[in-house]
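Something for you to look into today, if you have time. I want to see for myself how the chain folds. Leave the record below and I will have a look.
***
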Amino acid sequence: MIFKLLLLLVPLSLVLEYVVHAGPLWIFATAVLAIVPLAEWIRKSTEHLAERLGSAIGGLLNVTFGNMAELILALFVLYEGHANVVKGQITGAIIAAAMRVHTALGPGLLESVYCTCLKHELTKQGLKVESEVWLPVQYDTLKIDGAYRADLIVEDVVVVELKAVEAVLQLHKAQLLSYLILSGKPVGLLLNFNVVHLRDGITRLINKRRKAAGAAN
């Protein structure tokens, strides 16, 4: 009975991830509990097959698939963890480079100056950096080229938008989010250099629609 109840956590974990956008702790807890009845079903099925097919073939099946659910979960966690570590390393390198630029130049300059210097810093570290990347807009059957231009895209993962304004507005954040959606990149950094301390001008955004699209596919 308890296993049947735990099966309810399968759709619940999907709702938490893609509808409610709950915290990672809730999603992890429901996903781990949801895998328990699936693992039990696989174990019982392989045991029945072992009885019908004989100890040799059945034992091989049991060894191969008996713990398949736990293996899938472990591989998924490792993959997600590795991907998150890579994204974290890239964003960390970008922020560190931006701080070096800000320390050297200070506030009050044009955005283009900061953009050029930041690209130089990142390139010195061996990172792949594209600047002034034009992004098309797809509307119905129309494809509009050159509708948006992203300041920097680093390692095909992080979209960086630079500002030199008195205050970052919600419009600026919405603009970066549009860039993330159009480019399909997972992470965006909005860096406002017109501040005394750059740590006060850093905004990080996640492209949640990319996750949803990946799940749909």
The first strand starts at residue 129 and ends at 139.
